[in-house]
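User: Show me an example of a complex going from sequences to structure tokens.

Assistant: Sure. Here are the input components:
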Amino acid sequence: MGTLKYAILGLLNRNAMTGYELSKEFETTLFEFWNAKHSQIYPELKSLNAAGLIEYHVEITGNVLEKKVYTITDEGRRDFLSWEETLCPIQTATKDESRLRLFFLDSASSDFRLQFLEDQRQQHQAHLTHLLENQQKFDTVPPKEARAFSDYLVLRGAVLREEAALSWIEECLQLANQRKSNSASQKNRA
Amino acid sequence: MGTLKYAILGLLNRNAMTGYELSKEFETTLFEFWNAKHSQIYPELKSLNAAGLIEYHVEITGNVLEKKVYTITDEGRRDFLSWEETLCPIQTATKDESRLRLFFLDSASSDFRLQFLEDQRQQHQAHLTHLLENQQKFDTVPPKEARAFSDYLVLRGAVLREEAALSWIEECLQLANQRKSNSASQKNRA
DNA sequence: CAGCCCATGTAATTGGTTACATGATTTT
DNA sequence: AAAATCATGTAACCAATTACATGGGCTG
């Protein structure tokens, strides 16, 4: 899809940045829905530069350490906007190892089943708590064209998704427990 | 991670199957949380066979058409179970182009913003409807050790996730509409 | 001066998709 | 007879992670 390209152009469309700063931005801000390591970013910057979509100038930190501050070009901005202003299909399929394991969970022992679900529950709980802490940093919905508005929206998305994941696991636990007390009376299965 | 390996072993642990049937299984049953094309499956089967985790015998369909029916070996079963009976981290990050686009949506025109959100809303709505139709096929929660129990659980997971996604988009739409009427009175921004 | 962060790259490998390639069987 | 589906594979390419490799700058 070449999505990394547009993630980078999008970030540079906001602020000029070095590859290192882009990498930090992926780790922090975009982490929930996109990520890329520096080993993927630097080559991509090289090719975006070659394509004339971004430029850079070198700045010196201290005495010798060079850093390349990248800026988006007009052509790059046009390219980004033409990507940004297109519709896109929602994600109906996504690789999720937890769900795969859960799908096969009937081949595991009944003890492990509960242990697995309980562990998943706790992890989701912890992650949700963390997200809610971030959400509380917004005392109010960020206004207008504020940069933080997007941050708020994607954070809300993460919160709602995580709440749903937690509800789901709790539903699974409940059904698994039901099953356990049922099957106690008929343990003589294959 | 080598997850494909365990997805295949897990399926073969249920039933003996050909590569073609595995491929269909990925397309239908596992699709929501794992997928693999035949071009990835056939080489994987080759290497699992070489590792002694699966075996096959050849069956003839019609006059000449050969198909390889794969069976899991004892060693394969042990390997699968040792994977299956381990805890795993929840997914806190997943690449999602829709969310990325939404994150950058402030660089788009206000008209397009609403168009994008409305389109996403409709897509989520349609997908949810489809999932709920599948859910109705279960008149009751499948019992005990029934194969369908896992199917039911992952379907419930998909339903809850999709409901959350829809709620989120609706919240975004609401906020975006608010913003529009607000910003009408102060359109003189940079 | 040690340890951590800043800063930039490349190489090797894995995971995954798309395209290439072939041919039999069944259904309409 | 054509079209859809069954059936199996390989090749080329793209995306992404892990590891390799180097060195400066800042803080305690």
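The lines above are the inputs; the final block is the predicted structure for all four components together. Chain A has two domains: 3-84, 97-184.
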